[in-house]
Amino acid sequence: MDNNELLAGTDPAFTVNGAPRQFGPGPANTTALDWLRSNGLTGAKEGCAEGECGACAILVAQPDRHGGTAWTAVNSCLIPMASLDGQELLTAEGLGTPGSLHPVQEAMAGAGGSQCGYCTPGFVCSMAAEYYRPDRGAPAQRPADSGAAQPSETGPNGFDLHALSGNLCRCTGYRPIRDAAFSLGRPPAVKPDGDPLAARCGSPAPALRTTLLERGDGVFVRAATLEQAASLLAANPGAVLVAGSTDWGVEVTIRARRAPLAIAIDRIPELDAIDVREDEIEIGAAVPLSEIERVLGARVPLLGQLIPQFASRLIRNRATLGGNLGTASPIGDSPPALLALDARLILASAAGERTVPLSEFFTGYRSTVRAADELIKSVLIPMPLAGLTAFHKVAKRRFDDISSVAAAFALTLDGGRLTRVRIGLGGVAATPLRARATEDALAGRPWTRETAEAAAAVLETEGTPMDDHRASARYRSAMLANALLKLHADSTQKQEEQS
């Protein structure tokens, strides 16, 4: 089926720093960073080209799900410029001028937050996104083991330092940057002489347009409906599906891969929705992780622990569950937690839909049961949730790092006895997996230290961990056992404190 039979559109166009711009000549796979720099906006820099350093950060006006706009910081090195068709972008040049600095730029300069300046534009954009966050207020108290920002990481002005977790600086040092962040007040009131960027937050974000960009290196399309996307995929089973592009973007920048056809699915309504029902929660495959955290972080505690440990805020503002599951990486962060939650996936194609338990989704290293003409539509989490949950990720860095091993637990207790047990593991086999032997060792038994120790000995034997540069097989096994023992110790302490 010809793409033009399904879609019609013009070359992408954008609003950049308040001015209309056309995509113009250039490859269909052009990243936002390359497009900006080739058009004279060189504040954004390429540091790592894989979303690790934040030197490329820019702001995009995105819907806030309340009818307004959220200025959202993203890594421009990973995003196809064509995927921003119809959108509003701000770079560091658009925030202020040398004669009229933006409050964030003024704070950075005043605190001495910049030396060589290479990373500064990216820091400023990430800082501006947090500056305009509407619910920024006094720091909230959060569980110490949640993985979320602790009070010491949240300033007296409510500034969450995790907003800068994806930005690296190699010469200034982080203290003056933190001081600048903590010195920021609220944006000026919305009035004629106030902040136009703050005023912009009260108006709807631009709607995404159906896009068709054809170039010699490939074709980029944005389908308006699930049916269109499924029909395109059926006719072109080798097409690349793009939502957040935090994984595909690395393939483009680091491995020089090019997609003959890329299909953007990030704003298809069914894929960009969260539906909380009495018997289950349905999360669209293209909902950004930051949005999942905002909506479900408190309602689903296991996700509330997982998501703050998933890469950085810059990545989470684009990354999706569908993408993380679709890559089928054995060290992906979301599969262990979703396995513990007994999640199921809805796979959609032009022929219809089918539901697959996540425990049956992975078939081998980076392979799944998803057919070439199918896409992940949504993730289903059954209700009610287990009462005792925990997510443990072991990595060399506390945040923004790939896990060496990960374990997620969802335990249901009745009268001190374990009635239902689900444990998901990552980093110990060619696929994420359920720790079924350990589940059997726990089910029906009292939740005592003796039970936990006996089950921990079983958990050490789960999977087939290997030695590599991140960790040894022995270390990975030991960390699994420790995670279960820690869960028991933490839950016992909490119970004693409540009694």
TrEMBL record:
Q: Where is the signal peptide?
A: none
Matching InterPro entries:
2Fe-2S-bd, 2Fe-2S-bd_dom_sf, 2Fe-2S_ferredoxin-like_sf, 2Fe-2S_ferredoxin-type, 2Fe2S_fd_BS, Beta-grasp_dom_sf, CO_DH_flav_C, CO_DH_flav_C_dom_sf
Do you know which PROSITE patterns this protein is assigned to? 2FE2S_FER_1 (PS00197), 2FE2S_FER_2 (PS51085), FAD_PCMH (PS51387)
Instruction: Mention one GO molecular function.
Output: xanthine dehydrogenase activity
SUPFAM superfamilies from the entry? 2Fe-2S ferredoxin-like, CO dehydrogenase flavoprotein C-terminal domain-like, CO dehydrogenase ISP C-domain like, FAD-binding/transporter-associated domain-like
Query: EC number(s)?
Result: 1.17.1.4
Domain 2Fe-2S ferredoxin-type, first and last residues per copy: 10-95
Its recorded name reads Xanthine dehydrogenase small subunit
> What is the native source organism of this protein?
Arthrobacter stackebrandtii
